[in-house]
Amino acid sequence: MEGDVHNHRMYPGVNCFFLEKGERGCTIYDSRPLDPCRNYRCVWLDEVDGIPAWLKPNLSDVIITRKLHGGASGIVSYYEVVEAGKKMDVSVLNWLVHWALDKKLNVVYTIDGRSHVLGDHDFLDLMKIKSV
Ligand code: SF4
To answer: In the chain, at which end, N or C, are there fewer CB atoms within 10 A of the end residue's CB?
Structure first.
């Protein structure tokens, strides 16, 4: 998730100023703004098929977001996975790769600021073009 919360900027790799690690989570939950907080739905919260309970962002330190990319050949749907506060654990990465392969999903995941792409050939080509 990207955006400003009460003039504090956050983006992939930089956590929200109001996020506290552990059980507490958001320190201003009841008064969090509409945008980006209330409007945002992470994939874990939407109980997407195959997402386990342990992948909850405060347990796994990753956030999965469903995204759309519009190109010349139409709109492509994919999942974006970003680290939230610490380097992606190997168990998360292992699960992620199997999830993408088993369900034939398009996924972009970022580790240490470097993006990696899983998906079909069209999606790989699309992301190659996008990053040039
Ligand atoms: S819900 Fe809370 S922790 Fe999450 S982005 Fe909004 S203010 Fe930050």
So the answer is: C
Nearest-atom index, ligand 1, CA of 25:
3
Question: 26 CB under 6 A from ligand 1?
Answer: yes
Work out which ligand 1 atom sits closest to the CA atom of 16.
Answer: 8
8 A C-beta contact, residue 118 and residue 128: no
Cα-only R_g, the chain: 15
14: DSSP letter = B
116 lines ligand 1 (CB under 6 A): no
Element (H, E) at 94: helix 90-103
Residues 6, 64: one domain? no
Stretches in the chain below the pLDDT threshold 70: 22, 129-132
Give the residue numbers spanning the domain of 64.
41-131
Per-residue model confidence as pLDDT tens digits over 90-105: 999 999 999 999 999 9
